[in-house]
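Q: Fold this one first, please.
A: Sequence and structure below.
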Amino acid sequence: MSNCIMCMEKPKEYINLLDERICRECERKITGLSIDDIEYEYYSMMIKKIWSKYLVKYNESY
């Protein structure tokens, strides 16, 4: 099983976002953030990274 893309822990439960795993704890943190939170930039950057990786993989398959 692969690790959570956000915290690198091995999740017991997770969601799948564009072929990447996000543990329930990180999901809870992300959904509870406001743009003023100090962690907002980190999670925003990580989600952009997930999108970029997915788009590259998608484009390579065509």
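Q: Good. Now the second chain.
A: Here it is, same layout.
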Amino acid sequence: MAQIARTRDLSEVEKALWMIAVVFAPLLGALVWYFAGPHPFGVAESPATKPASRPF
């Protein structure tokens, strides 16, 4: 965030948009995980395809 604020290549609006993106991207990912679950597209391992666990 400090690097975004210090850059002179961006306008104030662009800086603000980048900062918002940096702050909310992790939040967005967490929300998608919460609502869609770990397999949002129905791709999950079935018990038949999982490797058998062996006792040591």
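Q: Anything worth noting on the second one?
A: The first helix runs from residue 2 to 6.
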